[in-house]
Structure formats: structure tokens, C-alpha cells
Amino acid sequence: MGKKDGASNKGKFYITTAIDYPNADPHIGHAYEKLCADVIARWHRLLGEEVFFLTGTDEHGLKIMRSAQKAGLTPKEFVDKQSLKFVELCRRWNISNNRFIRTTEEEHIRVAQEIFNKIYKKGDIYLGQYVGPYCTDCETFYTEKDLKNGLCPVHAKKCEIVKEESYFFKLSKYKEFILEYIDKRDDSIKPDGKKEEIKNRLKAGLEDLSVSRTSFDWGVPVPKNPKHVQYVWIDALINYISGVDYPKERFRKFWPADVHIIGKDIVWHHTVIWWSILKAAGIKLPKTVLVHGFILSEGGEKMSKSSGKVINPIELADKYNIDAVRYYLIRETPFGEDGYFSESKLIERNNTELANDVGNFANRVLALISQKSQGVIPKGELDREIVAKLNIEKIKKHFERFELHLALAEIMGFVKQCNQYINEKEPWKKSGVELNNLLYTLAECLYAIAVMLSAFMPATSDKIAKALKTEVASLKDIFSGKCLTQSKVESRCILFEKILADNKAKTF
Ligand SMILES: [Zn+2]
């Protein structure tokens, strides 16, 4: 890792997802991004840090207005209804966000106006003329690259070249600053390949950005000139500071954000545009923009409504144990790369790695303690040989490099070794001190697995901890002897059901 300027902020961690545009229902891409952020947020809580995790919905703009009209609702009624679906997604996927922000909230609007004002007063926003292709049916300005074969992408008709009064942000002024900032920090943009993409695009030229519209009114009004509304991207990006109560105490504590996790299609907005806005407003820049890949359908297409291959994340939560889905998505796809969603692979991993490996180990340990020690974890000595096989430092390093899949693989490797350990030690043949040491070691290992897996599969970890009559605490407490109790543990716990080929679940 490169140099870090976060030393003064040790102990706090602020992570955000992109806020979702709720003109359509949530799809698995929304769920995947929240899941990745959730795993990272939960891991930092395990490290003992104070975490703030923000997600939400981006509720302004012409597309929302149109979708509302189609649904026969006012824009506000429409977003009230739609945003609830994203809140529900968070609940069903066990996402541990501390706040769900909506850009239609009064306080957000106030902050978006304050930042706009600040930049205007500085002289970096000016009133000018926007000239470009305009579709009268859409009442929308397009850029040349929005057009399909030179025609309106919605109506496939010829656009007029029209002038509209617009405020502009002096984005061009920040070109050198952004180029320097990208290289100043090793982890300004992750994975590294994305840095070059942005640098190449910047070197090709950077123009001032139109930051207001007058052709519709569903947006944040420009202060003192309310016939203009802010360009939806400006309004949306500001959620990352309004979401921590800019400029109040929570903002002072958590800003700058440690991680903005986003999809690869919006890196430009989150680096060039967002960083320039912050610089212009005299606000520190976030530490890392972390780019995840897309989840594609098995054929390799990006899942979208038009391709007809949408996997509804709520239906997925109805059909499967959500921890199995969470596990599958993180384990299957190297973080940062595109993944292919396959139900058959989800089922395979559920049956082997989860039901067989994790579920089996938990139940063997609980059964042994029940049969050989009346359900009470005996006092004993920890067998350091097996404990040493859990390489916590290596897992921490994987998390620092955002290699979530490798962190999880490492933990699962330990689970396998624990099962092997039972096979080799044959505790059913042992007695006395030797047996006590074994049972105690196994209980500590099971507890450690519950803690380590809790960032990925929080409900499963809670079930294991509950069966052990304890709770998931912080990482530093594993193998400390402090977390196990003398209460009678449960003789078994059901963690994962094996799913048969015909999709009928069978209790493991
Ligand atoms: Zn049109």
C-alpha cells in the first residue's frame, strides 16, 4: 500500500455505495454493490473501528419525471414508492448501512444548494449558453454521443441544434490537479487499471461542464435563479457529504470518505467531476474510489431490463438462504472483475462449501461437546498447531487490497483444515485432559470461524455464536478464551439446507 494520510483518522471508517436511480426496480447489480460495501463495512467493525456506511437513492432528473408520468404519479409519489423497494432490498440482503439517504430530503437539497453557491461565489460556476442537439418530443438536450445514428435515442427523429441558458462549472481548470491527484495516492482509484483509463480520457481534453437545466423542474433549484435546476449528477454526488451531515459534527468526524464503491461505468463522475467539485468547494478529497465489476447473466450479457435477463434480488432472497447468495457472489467472482450469475453454481457451493464444510464442522463440534462433555465446553489448553493455520494477518492484507474473494477463500481453507483436524485427532476415542484440550480447541476454532465469516454471512455467524451461547465480538477477541461461556451449548444447529437438483430443500 502507498502512503496514507488517514493516520489522524485512525479508528473511523466511512464507506459509501453509489446511490441508485430508482426509475426501475432493483436488480442484482444494485444488490451486489451493496453486498460488497457491506462486507467491507462489517470487516472494519470487526477490526474495532467506528464505521459509517451510507447508501440510498438518487431521485431527481428527467428520467424519473418521465417514469412518474408513465406511472400516473407525481415525481414525489413515484420516488416515495420506488425508494422503498431499495430499502427493502437492504433489509432482505442483511445490509448494515447506517443511513439510507434520499436526494429529495430537505437537508440534502440544502447542502446541494450550499455547495453550488460556494463554487459560484468562488467564480468557478458561470452562466453561459448550452448548445447542442435537442429533441422537442423529449424536451431534452443530448450530446453528440447520446444520439443513435444522429437521431434522438428515444424517438429516432432528427434533433434540432438549440441554445439553452445554462450554468457551467469550470471543470477544465482542474485537469492538471486531477491528473496529479490520481498518482499522488496509490489507492486513489482501485483497481489500478482504472487509473490509466481516466488519465487517457483526461489527456484527450476536458471541457467545462453544464451543471443546470431549464427544460424541466424535477431537481434541486439553483439558489437565486430557480428556473434552473442542478444537473442531476452534481446533486447526486453531493449525497456523500450531505449523508454525513455536512458541515456538522458527523461530517467532521467521518469525512473524507475512506471508500466510494461504484460500478465501472461511473468512474469518470466519481473522480474527475466529484474531485473537482470538492476541490472547488475547499473540501478534502475521498481516499479511494473502488470499482467493482458487473454481474452478468450466464450467457455473458449485462443484466438489464432490455435484455430480459433480470434476476430480481428480492426473489433470490425468497428462494435461497441469503447467506448462501452472499457467499456465492463474493466467493465466485474475483473482486473488480465481471462475474457470471449461475444458479447451479450457487447450489453447488451451498451444498459443498456451506452445508458440508461449515455446517458439518459446526455440528460435529456441538455434537462432540454434547456427547462427551454434557454440553459444557471444558476448560483446556489451546492446540496452537491448528490455531496457527488461521492466518489472520494474511486475511487482513487481502481486505486492505480489497481482495474479498481471497479473504473468504482463506477463511474457508481454515474450515476445511478444522474438519481434517477432527478426523485426525479422533476425539471420540479420547478422554481426560487430552479430550478436554481437544474439545476446548474445537470450540475456540468454531467461534473463530463464526467471527471471521460474520463479515460475509452475518446471520450464519450469529446462529453459530448462539449455539455456543455467546455473541460475535471483535476480531482481537478470538482465541482469547474470553468469549466462550460455561453455559450448556446446543447439541446441533441448522445452518444451511442442501438444495437438491429439483430445488427442494433438504434439511442438513
Ligand atoms: Zn426524443
How would you summarize this macromolecular structure in one to three sentences?
By secondary structure, the chain is α/β, with parallel strands linked by helices. The chain has helices spanning 28-46, 62-71, 75-92, 106-122, 175-184, 193-203, 232-237, 239-242, 249-254, 267-280, 313-319, 322-332, 343-373, 384-387, 392-400, 404-425, 432-453, 458-467; strands at residues 12-17, 50-57, 99-102, 125-135, 140-141, 160-169, 189-190, 209-210, 212-213, 229-230, 259-263, 288-292, 295-297, 339-341, 498-499, 505-506.
Helix content, binned percent: 40-55%
Shape: elongated
Determine Rg (CA atoms, Å).
26 Å
Question: What is the SS-derived class?
Answer: alpha/beta
- CATH top-level class of the largest domain: Alpha Beta
Low-pLDDT runs of 5+ residues are 1-9
Total E-strand runs? 16
Largest sheet, in brief, is:
6 strands, parallel
Mean pLDDT: 93
Name every ligand kind in the structure. zinc ion
From the coordinates shown, what is the CATH architecture of the largest domain? 3-Layer(aba) Sandwich
Strand residue content: 5-15%
Domains counted in the coordinates: how many?
A: 2
Number of H/I helices: 18
> What's the CATH H-level superfamily name of the largest domain?
HUPs
Strand order of the largest sheet: 3-2-1-11-12-7
- Cα(first) to Cα(last) distance is 43 Å
The CATH topology of the largest domain comes to Rossmann fold
